[in-house]
């Protein structure tokens, strides 16, 4: 779950949000809550992790117009006020 790709610095959460795979997104978030990720890395930190350009999964879902993914991420604690530092 915490693996980052070397090209964009994105996690599986970023890709699920970007491509609108809401069921996959939900499965990733459920797994993150019930695995050591929640304890060692922190669930809120995982949900709001930034890619190499500063975008969170919520930014990507919103930019790609994926309303179901946006809702899932907001319900899971994504920060709607997070800045992208000039991304897109």
TrEMBL record:
<dbReference type="Pfam" id="PF12796">
    <property type="entry name" value="Ank_2"/>
</dbReference>
<keyword id="KW-0677">Repeat</keyword>
<feature type="repeat" description="ANK">
    <location>
        <begin position="53"/>
        <end position="78"/>
    </location>
</feature>
<keyword id="KW-0040">ANK repeat</keyword>
<dbReference type="InterPro" id="IPR050889">
    <property type="entry name" value="Dendritic_Spine_Reg/Scaffold"/>
</dbReference>
<dbReference type="InterPro" id="IPR002110">
    <property type="entry name" value="Ankyrin_rpt"/>
</dbReference>
<feature type="repeat" description="ANK">
    <location>
        <begin position="8"/>
        <end position="40"/>
    </location>
</feature>
<dbReference type="InterPro" id="IPR036770">
    <property type="entry name" value="Ankyrin_rpt-contain_sf"/>
</dbReference>
<protein>
    <recommendedName>
        <fullName>E3 ubiquitin-protein ligase XBAT31</fullName>
    </recommendedName>
</protein>
């Amino acid at each position: 779950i915490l693996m980052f790709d070397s090209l964009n610095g994105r996690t599986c959460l970023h890709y699920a949000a970007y491509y609108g795979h809401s069921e996959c997104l939900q499965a990733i978030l459920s797994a993150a809550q019930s695995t050591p990720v929640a304890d060692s890395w922190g669930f809120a930190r995982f949900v709001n992790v930034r890619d190499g350009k500063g975008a969170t999964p919520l930014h990507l879902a919103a930019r790609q117009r994926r309303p179901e993914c946006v809702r899932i991420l907001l319900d899971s604690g994504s920060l709607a006020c997070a800045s992208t530092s000039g991304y897109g």
